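W.,

You were right to be curious about this one. When I first looked at the sequence I had no strong expectations either way, so I just let the prediction run and decided to look at it fresh. Below is the sequence, 835 residues in total, followed by the output.
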Amino acid sequence: MDSRDVLHSSPVIKCRINLDGTWDELPSLFCELLGYTKQELQSKSFYDLLKTNNGTGNTIFQDLADGDCQEFEAEKEFCTKSGEVIPLFLSGALIRDQQGKPDYVLCYIHEMTDNGSIQKAIERTQQHFQSIFRHNPHPVYIFDLEGNFQRVNQKLVEFTGYSREELLETDFRSFIVEEDLDRTIRQFKAAASGKSGEYEIQVKIKGGEKKDIRVTKFPMYVGDEVQGVFGILQDITEQKKRKRKLRESEERFRLMFENNPIPVYYFDTEGKFLGANQKFEELSGYTKEELKERTFEPFVHPDYRESTWQNFKKALSGEVQESEIIGITRDGEERVVHLTTFPLMMDGKPQGVFGICVDITSEKEARRKLKNSEERWQRLVEENPQPVQIVQDGKIVFINEEGAKLYEASSREELIGQSILDFSHPDYLDELLERKRRLEQRERIESGEHKILLPDGKEKYIEAHSIPIQYKGEKAIQTVIHDITDRKNAEEALKKNEKQMSRLFSNLPGIAYRCKNTPNWPMRFISEGCQELTGYEPETFMHDEEGRLSYGDVIHKEDREFVWQHIQDAIRHNRSFELEYRIVDKHDNMKWVWERGVAIEGAKEDEIILEGFISDITSQKQADRQIRENLEEKKVLLQEIHHRVKNNLAVISGLLELQAMNTDDEAAISTLRESQLRIQSMAMVHQKLYQSDAFSNIGFNDYVKELVQTIESTYGLMDKEIDIVFDMAPVKLNINQAIPCALIINELVANSFKHAFHEQKEGTIEIHLNKSEALVELRVKDDGKGVDPDFDINSQESLGMTLINTLTRQLEGELELISDNDKPGTEIVVDFEVD
């Protein structure tokens, strides 16, 4: 076989060589042919591999770039790593960049001998690949460019649970979980375009189980073209789980560490801070960054540094240490802290010390204050001028000197261990047992009065102020006692005096009383008049017990709140009180009473006592009611009178209307209309009084508007625009002034409508009503043609002007005409005083 036949039948190796002979793209097959690794061959140039290299062939590629010829052919001998010489035939072409400049040479290498060195290299490479593919400990696959499985090894079959045949009938997309599918497709496309890489995804194997895998993918070349994608899988499911558990554990530790309500920290083996939580930062005043690389020494008071180092070393050796030291904050403040330190273990070896730091400064201060408080309490009790005793399980366990004097004992020790029940008067025993029960249940109760009985039979009244306490770590009852024997004796004497006073008050027509200022009004004294007024014996109200009848229960239920608030308001303003209210006596009769009283200080601190007098005013109330009823009857009668007058005037007005309808004489009709308006003016006054709550006066300003509207509707000039302007202050007039004033307004406004605007298409009528103190001023003004210059208002004989003059005199007023020849219109003023 000649060399040309060998060339045509031998495999071809394609490579890219730079113009200086260095490799731009070095195929693995060429490395295999010459026996070099890729890294070794990359360090050598094309010229270094030629058998004979005396420098004459070192410019073959540069000569190609400098010449006109773009292609070349040459036979060259290459030396393998083992020293063997292989003849190879080279052919290629010069490749230029986008600017047309020479870039590199694309070279094809052919074997010239028939011993098949390249083919053997290819076969060796394929054998290596097959061995790696088949015996790889990881799942391995080959995809075609569509993503379909082309080849799979046994490990992939075992990993997925599918048979080889099942795998070769599908593509990779069916195995990828949905959230990783897009990323997997991008990685596949990158490999198909020649890019290697590694990524992690989650896949679904047979049965639906999900697995985490790491994929190493790279393009599979045939010649210089990518024909598929080669991939190696690594099952990292357990690794992921371990990492996840590690993250969760670390997160739990971090959360516990950071959010711990107690300051925590940890050191390395040299006592330097490795970390501290927020609470430790707040306690120390340093930030985490400032704490790092510092030892604990600056934070420890010099007196405690040596012992702290010793405890640190013991904790480092595996012992748990607890101690109290004084720490120093960044601001120099000293804080008492309780430290618990223990070893920080990693892989079974101590790597540092973990510490918990509790600030007990406040607790220490509280203990100190408690001790001081107990000492002060002891001194206060010992030196108290009042008897003080402490009882546990009903027995006296402590009593001061004043207490011993109260019981008239020779010493305090004589009373220790004795039961308090032994000193209780039989009449008060049940009450004492109830107070003891409530106090032993840790209830707070009010002070109470008791009678004690001394061994010699002597009786004393006391007021006990008791509270539940802790005494020497056990529950106890502390009582401060006031000897009120003298006061009680005085009260008994007072009661005797009050009985005497009661007999004196028994003949009074009412109740004299003294009572406590509480809603039930418990009586301390009440006169014999109580029975006459309420039907109850005075003793009925002489108590202060819940559930029993009291004077407060006699007060009408609708008046109780009013009585309480009225009296409390008087007390707040330090004044006497006087009020009327209803009571319901023993026989369910309702009575009205009048009460007058005053508040005084009671015998006890902050106690208020009321003293006063209550009398029966039922008859007076009934008389007042009769008077109101009589007034109501008169009111109805007056309303009826005004109503009848108004109706009678309406009848007269109706008769005039009928008369006007039955005559054709225009003068007569006009006269009837004028009379009708005058009657309506008076009728409207009676209408206002009928509708008013007050029969002596009417609101005249509102009446005037209605009157003028009636006149306007009567004389309404359809072909003229007449505006009515009102300027009226609130004025009230009685009937004797309202009717004359109404008739005057009627005449004046009617005259303006009839006579002022004959020669005008439009005009204005103004009505002014003003009041200054007792003087009323009425003005009626128009802007019509006015009156003759020689017109005298007081000497006119027309019915209208005669009425105006007469009515003005009736009002005891003054009438004035204001007329200016230079200005149009007429203005008439009437002044009079209000009755």
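Here's what jumped out at me. Confidence is low (pLDDT under 50) at residues 1-10. And, maybe more interesting for your project: Residues 618-661 form the longest helix (44 residues).

Coffee later to discuss?

I.
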